[in-house]
């Protein structure tokens, strides 16, 4: 079971790399991926995996059981995301008769459990997300450049900053930095309606490298 879950995590990462996505790149989220019930942010390998799910407009994740407990329901056919939970437990050493050997210190054991979580957007009946009011410093001149861009692509809110050529769409978190916005808008100039560059390079390819240097 442990090997199976680990393989699922590896497959998610390899699949993302094949699409040109970089899981460990900072996604410029306004809010980090976190558990919808405990509010705890996911860290380590879990944060890496759930970064791949950042196309969802909601940073909240929860297990099937947690969703049911609050009256929500994971939609049929939705695929979950594998996460790992680590904890430590202490156990006293026992002799053959089951009695504790008081002279020995309790031993510490590492415990690893695997869970499958779903994004709040994959569930029906979820309570509204509590939006954190974080003021974003506005740069008027930068906004004017964005607004006056000829044949500008569509710009939408999302958890990850990226340009999607097939939809001619720039996705940006509400609190993303302007330099990230202009980076993605620069990619959009390669669309066939503008400068018509080849945007088909996968991560690691020469085409991809050249486009990142534009």
What does this 3D model show about the protein?
The chain is α/β, with parallel strands linked by helices. It folds into 2 domains: 2-124, no CATH class; 140-213, no CATH class. Helices cover 27% and strands 21% of the residues. The chain has helices at 2-18, 44-51, 64-69, 140-147, 178-188, 206-213, and strands spanning 34-35, 60-63, 73-74, 81-91, 107-119, 123-124, 154-157, 162-164, 169-172. The chain has a 4-stranded mixed beta sheet with strand order 1-2-5-4. The chain has a 3-stranded mixed beta sheet with strand order 7-9-8, covered by helices on one side. Strands 3-6 form a two-stranded antiparallel sheet. Strand 1, helix 2 (44-51) and strand 2 form a beta-alpha-beta unit. The N and C termini lie far apart (45 Å).
Give the structure's gist in a few sentences.
This protein is α/β, with parallel strands linked by helices. The chain has helices spanning 2-18, 44-51, 64-69, 140-147, 178-188, 206-213; strands at residues 34-35, 60-63, 73-74, 81-91, 107-119, 123-124, 154-157, 162-164, 169-172.
Shape: elongated
Largest sheet: 4 strands, mixed
Radius of gyration equals 22 Å
Number of domains: 2
Number of strands: 9
Low-confidence stretches: none
Mean pLDDT: 77
Helix/strand/pairing class, anyone?
alpha/beta
* Helix count, DSSP H or I runs of 4 or more residues: 6
Strand order of the largest sheet: 1-2-5-4
The helix content is: 25-40%
Distance between the termini: 45 Å
SSE arrangement, N to C:
HEHEHEEEEHEEEHH
How large is the share of residues in beta strands?
Answer: 15-25%
């Amino acid at each position: 079971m442990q090997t199976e879950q680990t393989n699922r995590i590896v497959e998610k990462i390899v699949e993302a790399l094949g699409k040109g996505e970089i899981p460990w790149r900072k996604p410029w989220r306004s809010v980090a991926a976190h558990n919808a019930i405990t509010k705890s942010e996911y860290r380590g390998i879990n944060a890496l995996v759930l970064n791949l799910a950042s196309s969802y407009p909601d940073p909240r994740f929860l297990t099937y059981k947690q969703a049911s407990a609050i009256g929500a329901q994971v939609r049929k056919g939705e695929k979950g995301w594998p996460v790992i939970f680590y904890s430590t437990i202490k156990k006293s050493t026992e002799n053959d008769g089951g009695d504790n050997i008081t002279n020995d210190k309790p031993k510490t054991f590492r415990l690893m459990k695997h869970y499958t979580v779903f994004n709040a957007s994959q569930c029906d009946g979820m309570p509204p997300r509590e939006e954190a009011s974080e003021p974003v410093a506005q740069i008027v001149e930068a906004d004017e450049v964005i607004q006056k861009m000829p044949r500008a692509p569509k710009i939408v809110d999302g958890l990850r900053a990226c340009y999607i050529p097939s939809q001619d769409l720039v996705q940006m978190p509400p609190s993303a930095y302007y330099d990230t916005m202009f980076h993605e808008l620069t990619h959009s100039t390669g669309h066939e309606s503008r400068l018509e560059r080849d945007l088909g390079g996968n991560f690691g390819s020469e085409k991809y490298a050249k486009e990142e240097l534009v």
